[in-house]
Design brief:
Elements (H helix, E strand, L loop, with lengths): L13 E9 L3 E4 H4 L7 H8 L3 E4 L6 H16 L6 E7 L10 H9 L5 E5 L5 H15 L4 E9 L17 E10 L9 E4 L7 E3 L3 H7 L5 E3 L1 H23 L8 E4 L4 H11 L6 E2 L3 H4 L6 H12 L7 E8 L3 E8 L2
Helix pairs in contact: 3-4, 7-8
Length: 332
């Protein structure tokens, strides 16, 4: 006898219902970075657009920053946290192989029995999380999904590396994804290029770090990353617009990963965005926070009044792997 398995079904549409963030207390100006490298404030700003960044103190752990950002997102969404069915944490700086930090965050947020897991997709991590969250909601696997991007990149920063010491920073951002009356998250365009895995990577293995009794560090080949991000990722962003059925002139906001101000400007030009489209430039005061950069930028634009509820935003993350993901979203 043939037995049919009952398939799950969820909401017709999913959207971002609330966002939240956490920025570390400590502000680190370029002058402090220059104590360890031979450079200048002018060179750093010209190269990256960064004037200052946030570095976490000892008590501002990946878990603590995530929980604070998540609770802010839950409050913004106005939901009962016990209804969260899944917690996804995008990070490369939870420095334990197991268990996933998502399980501990779920407990502290008030969703102790939620499915919970971490993903390692570097600077594309938040967009990966939003894409999976949307599919989980529409597939019926969860009513609400908490997607978090969090990093403590200062732990892995080589303070003496002139090419990267000024870039990396810390922070957390979160979003609640749930049922919506109309499509609030467009189709994701995502992928990878493992042939370029070495251009952004961890310099030393954990075995090598243990043997030398030193932390591992991040390394980056700036020129190939700049070319790839500025031009290839502009094409990916355009594909996301096309799949969502949205034209550049219909956008309100462009919120790319805050990697580098020059990359942001190059992508804006390549996409031919009209003047009315506001562009996130949180990197100036926050630095590059990898998986956390997009939700941090979203909350910054909301707080400044640049972004309003219902605005259409193109978001795109790209980084180590190389990996990338882009989608059009409607802000809560």
């Amino acid at each position: 006898m043939t037995v049919d398995i009952k398939a799950s079904s969820g909401a017709q549409y999913a959207g971002i219902l609330g966002v939240g963030s956490y920025r570390p207390r400590r502000v680190v100006p370029n002058a402090e970075i220059l104590e360890h490298i031979d450079s200048s404030d002018e060179w750093i700003q010209t190269r990256s657009g960064i004037k200052e960044r946030r570095w976490a103190s000892d008590d501002e752990t990946v878990r603590m920053m995530s929980v604070n950002a998540a609770k802010n997102a839950v409050a913004d969404a106005g939901i009962d946290p016990s209804e969260i069915g899944c917690v996804i944490v995008a990070t490369v700086t939870h420095l334990y192989q197991t268990p996933a930090i998502a399980t501990q965050i779920a407990v502290e947020v008030g969703a102790p029995t939620a499915a919970a897991f971490d993903i390692s997709a570097a600077c594309a991590g938040f967009c990966y999380g939003v894409a999976m969250a949307s599919d989980l909601v529409r597939g019926g696997s969860a009513k609400y999904v908490l997607a978090i991007g969090v990093e403590r990149l200062s732990d892995l920063t080589d303070r003496s590396d002139r090419g990267t010491a000024f870039l990396f920073a810390d922070g957390a951002g979160a979003a609640i994804v749930g049922p919506a009356d109309r499509a609030g998250i467009g189709p994701v365009v995502w992928g990878s290029d493992g042939t370029q895995h070495e251009v952004i990577s961890q310099k030393e293995s954990w075995q090598e770090s243990a043997a030398s009794n030193n932390w591992p560090h991040l390394r980056m080949d700036g020129n190939p990353v700049f070319r790839w991000a500025s031009f290839e990722m502009a094409r990916t962003a355009q594909q996301a617009l096309d799949l969502a059925g949205v034209k550049a002139e219909q956008l309100d906001l462009f919120i790319p990963h805050q990697a580098n101000m020059r990359i942001i400007d190059a992508m804006r030009r390549a996409l031919k965005l009209p003047e009315h489209v506001k562009v996130a430039r949180d990197i100036e005061r926050q630095g590059n926070t990898s998986a956390a950069s997009i939700p941090l930028a979203i909350t910054a634009m909301r707080e400044s009044g640049e972004a309003r509820s219902g605005d259409l935003a193109l978001i795109i993350g790209f980084g180590a792997g190389l990996v990338y993901a882009a989608q059009v979203v409607r802000l809560p």
